[in-house]
Amino acid sequence: MFCLNRHILYVLLDGASDRSIDELGGRTPLQTAETPNLDAMAKDGWTGSTEARTYTHDFLLEFMTGTKERVPRGLVEAFGMGMRPEPGMVAHRLSPARIVDGEVEWLYRVDDAQARLLTQSVRIHLSHLGDDAVCQFYSGGRGVLLCRHHPVNVPAPPSPATLDVESLGPFLDIVEAIALDNKGVTMLPWGGAIMSEEHQLAPVTHLDGMRVISKSPSALGVGSILGLRTELIMDLEQRFVSSLEHIIKGPVLLHVEETDDVSHRRLPWEKVTMLETVDHLMGSIPKDLSVVVLIDHGASCVSGEHIGGTVPFMVHPAPVSGPDCFSETEAGPLPLNSLCDKINCILYSKR
Ligand SMILES: [Zn+2]
After folding, report:
1. Architecture of domain 8-71+201-349 in CATH?
2. Which of 38, 93, 136, 171 supports an S-S bond with 191, CB 3.0-4.6 Å?
3. Can you say whether residue 58 is alpha, beta or left, with left for phi > 0 and alpha for psi between -120 and 50 degrees?
4. CB within 5 A of ion ligand 1: which residues?
5. Domain range summary for the chain, segments of one domain joined by +
6. Can you tell me whether residue 155 is helix, strand or coil?
């Protein structure tokens, strides 16, 4: 049974944990960054570890519902972008990629000029997928596609993978046409699914009144599928400002995607700097507020891949004293599906 605390600020630091890195003297970015605010919260809070999930939406759905809900990424993001797939329409995620000799190289966050060209190309060739196919794009050339064709056997990013292009079936023509327009760079559909009863989740009453604040359609989509209020804010600092405005009315989930973005750029010191920026913003949170810091998965700022295993979390304040700093730990991992309940009860019981 879930306890209820209406004023918890959940901060999700997407992909913030990492491995030890030679360039950082054998430390992780979290261990390297100067994070006085996160460290002060750790000292005065309860820290532990839980199970990572490869994708943000899988982590959030399991954390928030307490069950292993699996809603395919295309559907989650369609909801996150306010698209409501009609019966029969399949929602796919579209990601920039290059296919060379059957090897897929995902291009994480192409620049604005290339994103514009790819977007234009998709629109020009969209009729290959039928008259009622539609797509919408967001940053980095990523998009959501709705069409009547069913999922193809395309692997999911970010890890490189092999692909037999013939298996693209009805998508082959458009994938090839986009590659021809863009010197070999194309857009691949993945995570496709049709809305069905199994994806219609019951509203989560214990998170009643929660607002999800993010720049990412995957976090916003989870909020939308669960019947929560959502707010798209691109600017990181503004996301903190809005979170503190809304915490008076109810719980807030503040999603920081920048820590994952920077990992995919594979520049360790940039990840350190980003964590310090986030820590500075954490300093704006009133000390008497109940705060939960979560990480959905690790992300290697050396290889650009997501890392499974365990991820640290922190609850502040808590009637125990914690470590001197907030960083990677494997201490007593708690199952993800009971973490929300545990956290709520710890914060509730001390009142
Ligand atoms: Zn990522």
Report:
1. 3-Layer(aba) Sandwich (3.40)
2. 93
3. alpha
4. 260
5. 8-71+201-349, 83-194
6. coil
